[in-house]
Structure formats: C-alpha cells, structure tokens
Amino acid sequence: MKVRIIALIIFCTKFLSAQFADYVNPFIGTDGHGHTFPGPCYPFGMVQLSPDTRLEGWDGCSGYHYSDSLIYGFSHTHLSGTGVGDYCDILIMPGSKKLTKLDLESSYFPSRFQKRNESASPGLYQVFLDDPKIKVKLTTTLRTGLHEYSFNDSTFSWVVIDLKHRDKILHAGFDEKNRIQISGHRTSSSWAKEQNVFFSLKFSQNVSQYIYSNDSLRLFCIFKNLPSNKLSIQCAISSVDIQGAKNNLNAEWMNFRFESTYKNCLYQWNKMLSRIQIKDTNTYLKKLKTIFYTSLYHTLIHPSLYQDADQRYRGMDYKIHLGSKKTPRYTVFSLWDTYRAAHPLYQLIYPEFNYCFAKTFLEQYKECGRLPVWELSNYETYCMIGNHSIPVLANVFLSQTKKFYLDASEVISAMEGTFEKNYSNIKEFKQGYIAMENGAESVSKTIENALDYYAYNLIKKSKNQEHKYYQNLYNPETGFFQPKQNCSFTKIFDPYEVNFNYTEANAWQYLFGAHHDINGMIDCFHRDKVHDKTKVKNIAPHPLERKLDSLFRTSSRMTGREQADITGLLGQYAHGNEPSHHDAYLYNYCNRNDKTQMYVTRIMNNFYTDKADGLCGNEDCGQMSAWYVFSAMGFYPVNPVTSKFQSGFPLFNTVEIRIPGQKKIKIERNNYKRKFFVSRLSINDDDIHSEFSIHSGDQIKFYYDSKNYLQLDPPVATTTDKYIPVPYKLGGDEVFDDSTFLELKGFSPSGIEYSIDSAFKTKYNYKIPIAIKNEGSYYFRYKQNQEENNLNQMQKVVFTKKPVGFFHHTETAYDPQYAAGGGNALFDGLKGSMDFRDGRWQGFRGKDVIVQIKITNPEKINGIKVRCLQDQNSWIILPELIKVFVSNDGYNYSREDLITHNIPKNTNESVDHVFTTEKVKGSKFIELKILNSGTLPDWHISSGKNSWIFIDEIIIY
C-alpha cells in the first residue's frame, strides 16, 4: 500500500493541466448561516481536519464561524452545512508557554488570529496563531490528518490532545502511548447519541514529558528544542477500534512529508472537480467559476467514508462488520435535503459513488431493519421527516447498469420493511392522509410520504395510488395544502404562519411540495373556488402559473413561530430551505419557461456569492450547492427519481462533463451575446420541448433570442393520474353544547354515503347537513363505483359534548403557536397525545398559569384533574406544583391544597402527569395556580432559557 501511495505522489507531480481547485474558496458558507468549515478533507473522505472557533450555538454547528477571532484547536471530524451540531472529535492545540498547575486545570488554550493570516484551499488550511506565535498548516489523506506546527521558539513547546471537547463524553481515554505514538478512544453523545472515535497518531519528534489533566481527558505532550522549531503530527481515526486506527495510519503513512501529502490531496480534488469542466476563459467569469467550483466542492464533502483500510466498519447494530473494497461503507446522510438535487447530481456525475451510497443503505437495512432517515456515525438520528433514502435508492435502481447492479427483490424488501417501521406516520398515511391529531407536521409528512411511495411504486411496478394521497389535504376553499382535524380542515388558517403542521415551513412553502406529481398538483389547483387573495396584476390563465406568480410576488412576511432555516426569500419562496428548491422550474409545466429563466437567474445572482457569507442558508451536506451546480449548467431534476431534467438558464458558454468510462457530454450556449431568453434547446440536434434525459456523448445546445422563449409541451397525463380526493367535513362543531350538524363535501359524481357503524350495515345517502344531538361517531365515504379506485377510504368523524356544570376563565394568555383551538381548549373534553405538536395542547412560556372556575352545582363536584406534559428536549417541563384555592363568593380565597410530583426534569422521553385533588368538594369557586418550573436547569443544552408549561386537559369530576 505504501508503494502505491509513493507512486501516486510521483504521478501527482504531473498535475492535471486545468487546476479546477484554484477556483474553490472553502471560506464560502462559513459566515452567515451556511455552517460550512474551511479545513481540508479528501473528496468523500473520513477525516475533515479543521479549526474550531466556536463551542456551541446554532451558527457553531460546523465548529467554525468566519466572524470569530479565537481558535480553540484543530479537530479531525466536522459536519458541513448541517442545522444541528456534532463531531469536532480529537482536538489538538499547540502551545509554547511554560505550563503551570493552573494551566493544567484549564478547559481550553484559545489563541487569537488575524484573518489576513488565515488561508484555505482544497487540501490545505494555514493560519498563524498570535498568542503562542505558531504557524499552523493542515492537510489530509483519506483517513488521516497531517498537522505541521512551526514555532517561533521551541525552547518549551507542547500540544494538548483534548478528548473532552464540545460533546458529552460517555467514556474516553488514552489507551497506549510511547515517546512517539499515542492511541486512544472517545465515545460521545450529542446528535449521535453514541459516537465511537478511535485514534492513533505519531509525532515527528520524541515527547519529553506527558502530563494529564485532572480528569485524564486531556493529555499535554511536551517537547524541548525541536529541530528547525517544527513539529508534525499524523493522526488517523476509526469507528471500529484502536487497531483499526493504527491500520489506517500505517496504510496512509506519509512520513511527515507535508508538501507531498498536500499535493496528493489536491490532485484528488482536481480529479473529482474536473468531471465538470467550464471551458470559458473570460476573466469576468472568474467570480462565477469560483461560486460554481466551490459549490461542486461542497457537494463532495459528505457523505463520508466510514470503512477502515482493513475493510472493517461499525454497523447500525453497533457490531463490527467486514465490508467490500469495491463498495465501501459511508456515513452522514442528510437525506431530507440531499435526495432533491445532491444525489441526482451524484447519479449523473459520480455514479460509482452514488452506487456505493445505495449499497450502504441496503447494508444498513440488514443491520437495523430499516433504511436510513438521517444517519450519522452508524446512529439513526431520526432527524426530519419521510423515508427519503427510498427515492435515492429508486433513482440508482432505475439508472443501473451491469456495472452498478441492484437486485430488485432486495430493494423492494428494504423499502417495504422500512414502511413497516411506521416512521413518519406511515400507518396513518395509508388511510389517505395524516390528520393533525395523529402526528405533528402532518401536511409535510403526507406530501413527502406520497413521494416515497411514488418511488417505491415505480420499482414495484404497482398501480396503487399512495403517491396521490397528498391531494386529500388540499383545501379548494383556501387554495393551500392545509391540516385536517377530525376530518375537517382547520378553521383558523394563515398560509403565512410557520407552525408544526409543516416542516420548517408554512403553507406557502409546501404549496408545490409534491414535485413527483405535477399533474396532480395542477388538478388540485383547478379545484380552487377563489383566486389567490394576494394582489397580483394580470392574473395568469393557467392555475399553476397563477399559483407560482402569487408565491414569488406576495409579501415575504411570516407569522407564527421563529424558524431560522427560512431564509433567502423571494415573496414566500425560501431558497434557504429545501422544500422550495424546485419551485422556479415549475413554470416549465405551464409553458412559461421565460419565468423559469427569470427566477432561476435571480436566485443564482441574489443568493450565491463568492464571499464568506455567500450562502443564504445552511449548506445542508451539499444540497444548497447542488442546486447551483445544476442550475448553472442549465437544467434541474424537478423529479429526483427519474433522472430527467427541466431546462433553465445556463451561465457558461461551454461546459464539458467527463465521466470515466463514458463519452464526453458537451453543453453549449449558441449565439448568446447577452440575449435574454433561451429560445431553443436541442440534444444531438433533436429539438427538446419537455423534460429530458442526459446520456453518454450527448451534445446539448441552448439557443438564445431577444424576444422568444423556449416553448414546452404540457406534462403528459396518464390514466393512473386519475384520483378523487376523499370527502371531508365542511361544517359542524366537533365539541358542542346541545346540538350541532354534519355537513359533508366531496368531489365524486357518485355522491356520498354515511353510517353510524364502520361496517356500513345500515347506510344512508348524504343530501343535506345531518342534525347531531348526541355524542358519537359517524362514518362516510363515496358511494361505491368501480371506476374510482380510492373510494374505500372511509372517513370517521367524532362529535363530543362539551363538559357542563361550570364556567371557566384562564387569566394567563396562552402562546398563539399553541392555542389548541382557543379559550375552551383546556375544558373541551378532547385529550392531547404524547406529542405536544398535535394541536390539542395549550402552551404557556415562562409564566405561571392561573385558571378560575365557577361550579354550577358545588354539591356534585368530587375533585379536579390537571393533565400536563413534559418534553425537556423541547423545553417543556412539568409544573413545579399546583396551588389550589377555593371560595364561596369568588372574592375571598383560601388555599386548600398543594399538589406536587416527584418526576425528574431530565426524562429522555415525553411523559404526562395528572395532578389530582379532592379537596375542592362543595366549593363554588376554584382557582388553580399552576407554577412554572423556572428557567431550564444547568445540565440542559439551553440552560437559562424560559421553560414551557403544556396543559390538556382540566377535568372536573
């Protein structure tokens, strides 16, 4: 192996003629909310060696932020662009002052640095540390990091190896050491609840003395009189064991030859970046090339290699497995983000890697019984919604060749096994849609589950219509996908409101979420009863164009809860978060490619720059950058499963795609000359008027015109596109006093039938609203018609009589985000689930809750129950206690009870508790003072912040 590396180093001196890495600026995305890091790594490499400048906080997710002026050290793992922090393992920091006992007890030894003394490029990071006066150079191999520290004075020099940095430590230690080599381990808990990192490192000079910190989690390695004042360290990591780390170090040992190591890493980057070659030589395009190649660079950081040089890896079952050299194991799969464009980019440009990712998914299924959602270091974080490894797997399967073969039965089995795990409320989704009371983010889950089933049905060749179920949440009265509760669209609805019915978004940003079924969305829009209420001049005739115009032209204001991810706004289009990414290309489906070109160009120009804050939102493991790479080449995969693309507006005159083993693909702009519109598109001289595929050797040409734009055919409709949304409750109160009614609405000409039993033994034709006087359930469906294949989806609506015998008033105002239906929510007889986002719980932040009750017949009351929720991960803590006061006149109160509990605040799972008192018998007036537990405790990740009280329900018995 060493011989091969040396041979490669010799070959690397003959660099590729085009240095595409010269256009990469790793600082792009490190400012603002991009959450990237500047340090070196291999393409899809195991190690990401980078400076750590921030210890916590959302903008410290990657460990680095451009605005910082202190460096705490250099660690070997980092996440690129995520919205949750983790990694930053095995921190090393050099120093040069004489250590005191006080120093040995210090947590960190940060150094100031100047931006003018910091630089980064692919494979190389350099900085001068002001305080110890040390020049730092970093580079990497595939599984190791190489440090080079140049001291101004090495009379007394040292490095500290920190195993305690950032994350909670489950166990860690320095297991082996001698004068030149140290090995150890760190098992930490953060986003990944059990992450194992083993390491082995070698120094270029002997250590003269080792000193441990008091907790033995930091080791000071002291050197005296370093030759040339220079110290080098090569550190390998492994998820398997110390021997795995040693094997990685030996297999990639560079003997401290920094320049050769760097050139090797740079060569690997140029080789990967050169698969897309921009041939334009105009100097004014340098800025655009920088944005483009930095974007491509960012797409190649994650997923990350997770298999050692001896082919071993740690699986999802935490067992050690022997992997394949041809298809090694990878980790860091941000699939809710990357299924949209990053994986389609890999399939087009780096198919051998996407095949390895797909093989990783299938092996993970064997180990834990499900495909990954958001896998991180062999731990399933279950972050985000959906099961979006399924569309990625489907895309690889549908694009496979003899070289990259996937077995259909294995793929189908993995998909079906994943659905059976019921993540993302699959069970409820299979009934037609997810109701608000059955799961948080119900609208987004319904839409995205439909996409996953679309991908599955393509592989299965099934005619089932789960991919259409999202239509059941489209409300033609408002013109949006809207949550349903008890078979009825929610009465209070604001499309600008960010709430827990949508995933990191509002109704506007999920209006076009079903990007697997454009015809189906158009069918929904055709059902609109009113035009959009936003003031749009010259309303377009096509409903899709009308909706898109409204999206981009409406106000950018938002209401509801704060959501830091929603950035990069054009109207309500949010480029800083993924659900919007395909929206501009949807104009193609109503033959308005001119608007696609206009908005795509505007997004590229406004939300991508060559500065450190050049990304408008989280980079998200390559997705934000993949959008730019595709769009700059002139096309985008609106449907991420089929490897077909929609035309846009290319930025460059000539782009060549060079994939090993394939013929060159060439993309050209013909007669551009700053003309505004793409007016014609051809592939191999055949005109294109719809979505298109790209194959080896294709010659793609965009022609331009000053007035005319590309004419596109409407999407082809098929018989399987026919779907009739289920009927729903249009009117009638769920909770009522004496009587209410049931009004139904449907879309089938066959009409609606209803029954009071689920078997429909006795059924009635629905004609007019039904009078309801008693509590109970009603069942309704369309009349059976063999031509309509979704009519078996029976709906169940439940009516509940409001509890009587008292009047109530909640003196404390609830938070509007958690209104649970308003003033009657605490006494409506409807019980919330264990999920605080289900629309039943009422929330109060940072204050006590005072509730006053007047009893109509005091002699009939026996007691009161108050049900509260705890979910400390969401800042919801059980009340400290409840004080109970009683009065006979409503003015003079005396305390009758003090209700406490013994449930600790640090429960990992959600728990509910019912506070009960019977010391209110015979009382006409009752006052409850529900005491907030105070700010979040010191051990909490958000210590010092105000906690919440969540209540549902208060029961008088």
What does this structure look like?
There is one protein chain. By secondary structure, this protein is of the alpha+beta class. It folds into four domains: 25-269, Distorted Sandwich (Beta-galactosidase, Chain A, domain 5); 302-639, Glycosyl hydrolase family fold (Up-down Bundle); 724-801, Immunoglobulin-like; 806-956, Jelly Rolls (Sandwich), CATH 2.60.120.1190. Helices cover 18% and strands 27% of the residues. Strand 34 (654-657) and strand 35 (665-670) form a beta hairpin. Helix 7 (342-349) packs across helix 8. Mean pLDDT is 94; it is low at 1-16.
Please tag this protein with its features:
nine-stranded antiparallel beta sheet, 55 strands, 4 domains, globular, 957 residues
Give the class from helix and strand content and strand pairing.
alpha+beta
Distance between the termini: 77 Å
| Backbone shape | globular
Number of strands: 55
Short description:
This protein is an alpha+beta fold and 957 residues long. Helices cover 18% and strands 27% of the residues.
